[in-house]
Amino acid sequence: MGETVDILILAGRIVTSKGASHSPLKGDNFCSVTETENGAVAIKNGRIIAVGEEEDILKEYPPEQSRQVIEAGGKTLTPGFIDPHTHVVFGGSREDEFALRISGVPYLEILKKGGGILETVRATREASFPDLLEKSRIHLNRMLAGGTTTAEVKSGYGLDLDTELKMLKVIQQLDREHPMDLDPTFLGAHAIPPEYKDRTDDFIDFMAEKVLPRVAEENLAKNCDIFCEEGIFNIEQSRKLLTKAQDLGFEIRFHADEMVSLGGAQLAAELGARSADHLLKISEEGMEAMARREVVATLLPATPFTLMKEEYAPARKMISAGVAIALASDFNPGSCPTHSLPLVMTLACLKMKLTPEEALNGVTINAAHSLGRAGEIGSIEEGKMADLVIWDAPNHRFLPYHYGTNLADTVIKRGRVVVEKGKIKEGKK
Ligand code: NIG
Ligand code: FE
């Protein structure tokens, strides 16, 4: 007599990294995945209890003793995708700015004139808690339907105490209610609000002394982020806020070296950040420093794509330098309005020359490392959380190759089928 299980998935092609839960995949290892052609997975109490060749799994876990059997013949199973950089919570939308940028006005110039991020700040300050909650839920549903089972989500469209707390409470409530797991990040220093115009140091002091301690007190965020960029927050201001955040127990991950090579990568290494993100302008020194301290580089190729840039993060150089790479969407209303990690994989392959295997590791195991969650998610291994996607694809290479269509067929989160035939089935935790 075999053991009773909750779900048995049969006959699928299983593609996952293996044994990479201790440190992120780097160098040649980043390119390797394990493929099992006729694979099966047994799930019980939200966890993967067995994975391997179907023949072997069936001996121990006969289908008649499973509450549910999913036939995945001709399909591909991967770990649930993890999006380690998003701005899901915001009011309004910015399709007018999209048109403006096409006509040639640069992103940072729009921001300087009070548009861009600041336009979203106005809309988010005005939005009620229930409105923000429902709008963000719709975004999460679309992400989940596209195969994303865990996401980091930032505040940062409030830039004042009340709105920053409101955003973080939306994230907290969604983490409790929505099937996806959310990793909350405080990004109070995302831009300089009009009331602090030409007083950036005062704004950083306000964030460090008044807002961060409240966020810590109310336990509303795990991470702290800052937009470290020329004309926004410089290295000194970033060091000040991030050091204070570390003192208060936050992990740090931040927007670094995106438009100008300011040395954000070196700062990330100096402070022992979990991740530094964007990095289009990372220097060789920055790469060495990040490799040495094992700071994950979370790259966001859909952002330069949206901003019509020729230049992308130098991913191949970073991989050669020993930097661990993760991929994320950067989903936000301005510089990157996509929910889709498969599209991010496509852009990572076509624009940064990642292999499909590297792109898959970038949105699974290394993305888990970017969030410090690799002991629980990011690969299909015994004991890990049963977060899985069954793709309507013959193999994993098909995912970045056949872009622009949602190929996620079934999504399983913590051992429950939450998406079936591409449609949300369970909208609650
Ligand atoms: O990562 N760079 C700053 N933050 C976001 C953009 C947010 C926005 O445009 O609303 C980013 O690209
Ligand atoms: Fe961002």
Estimate what percentage of residues fall within beta strands.
15-25%
> Helical segment tally?
16
The whole-angstrom Rg is 21 Å
Question: Which ligands are bound?
Answer: N-(iminomethyl)-L-glutamic acid, fe (iii) ion
Distance between the termini: 32 Å
Task: Let me know the number of strands.
Answer: 17
Report helical residue fraction.
25-40%
Largest sheet data = 9 strands, mixed
Low-confidence stretches: none
Q: Which structural class is indicated by helix and strand composition? A: alpha/beta
The outline comes out as globular
Give the mean pLDDT. 97
In short:
This protein has 429 residues and is of the alpha/beta class. 36% of the residues lie in helices and 23% in strands.
Architecture overview:
- The two termini are 32 Å apart.
- The protein has 16 helices and 17 strands.
- It has 429 residues and is an alpha/beta fold.
- The model has no long low-confidence stretch (mean pLDDT 97).
- Strand 8, helix 7 and strand 9 form a beta-alpha-beta unit.
- Helices cover 36% and strands 23% of the residues.
- N-(iminomethyl)-L-glutamic acid binds next to helix 4.
